[in-house]
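Run log, item B.
One chain of 173 residues. Sequence copied directly from the ordering sheet:
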Amino acid sequence: MAETKKALVARLFAEHRGGLQAFLYRRVRRRPEAAELAQEVYVRILRVPDLATIRDPGAYLYTVASNLARDHARRERRGVALDVDDPLVQEELAEQPGFVGQLDAEQRTKRLNEVLNQLPPKCHAAVVMQYWQGLSYEEIALRLGVSTHMVKKYLSQAMVHCRRRMGRLGVGL
């Protein structure tokens, strides 16, 4: 194969971009994620040490895309991600929950602290900085040394974790 890696990827991109994104969209059902996964396909092809071993680059492209879509679906099933920027989620977070149950406020607070302490350190820190210190995503990202996207992921993971763990006790969150 006389083509360089970059030339091959550029050709594949030109030939398959629309079809590949449509292929991924049918699997993930969100255009931004399909576009992101399509980009990852090309990055992975660039990482292949010997392109001469690939007999059919077009077929290889779709095989990589299929594997990425499958991995994406697995990640989605592991935890339902909440978009903390979604106005409905923000509204729900701002509401004072109506706790009806046998646990009083002190017990709920104690239980919530236990649940929060089960979170990974950066995830826990993001929750503390957001909800107790009132910091913005950008400020949290700077302090944790991560992207704002990662801060949103941490907060989403924390919300899912807390809802599940508190829900098991019949305690709303």
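Observations after the first pass:
- Residues 96-103 have pLDDT under 50 and may be disordered.
- The chain has two domains: 5-78, 87-168.
Flagged for discussion on Thursday.
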